[in-house]
User: Fold Probable membrane transporter protein from Roseomonas alba.
Amino acid sequence: MTDQIPSWGAILGVAFAALVGGLSRGFSGFGAALVFIPLASAAVGPRAAVPVLALLESVSCLAFLPGAWAHAVRREVTVMSCGAVLAVPVGSLILAHSDPVALRWGLTGLVLVAVGVLGSGWRYRGKGSVPLVAAVGAVGGVMSGTAMLGGVAPATWWLGRNAPAVVVRASMNLYFAVLTAVVIASFAWQGLFAWSSVWLALAAGPVYGVSLWGGSALFGLASETAFRRIGYALILAAAVLGMPLWDALTGR
Assistant:
């Protein structure tokens, strides 16, 4: 990523990704990265897209924090966040030193696996021990540092335990509030932020804010079943559209 002002094509691509990603995030409490990263990566590449989402999320986490504290499973969030915090630097090292195309294919694969697990109806019936919850957080930390995909592991965990939608959404929002702060610090340490990141974040910020509000409004209208089905559909569509397979059609 360079410090040049992004092109209009890049700005529009990132803004569209912010629109869809913000709807998913506002509606479900997770899914911003699952939706935003594949779509934005098709426009500007993953090394540019990931830091932009980190900047966007720094604002959205503060907006969702009050409601998250009231309904989240705070004990599990605390343990999970500790595991994630320790693992984020590993993920940021992967992002800083990986091949962009290979990383995009890897991200697409992870998203598709997540959709498969979430949509399978699988439920974890065992006890949520401290080591197990911390391990889920560690997986999320690595994925977050690599591609802001830290929501995959905890979302799979809480949805897999058949938690109510309001609890899943609140727990994810609280988890992200902690994790985003660590991710931003880690990205800054790795030198992953550039002026182009700031320009893209400023350009996409208003769209992201409006779509967060829209997603939050839709959450109040959705049933438990709709809550899951809509999230899965958004994530699956973004994974397919973000594949490097389409680069030849877009001239990248």
About this structure: The chain has one domain: 8-247. The longest helix spans residues 46-71.
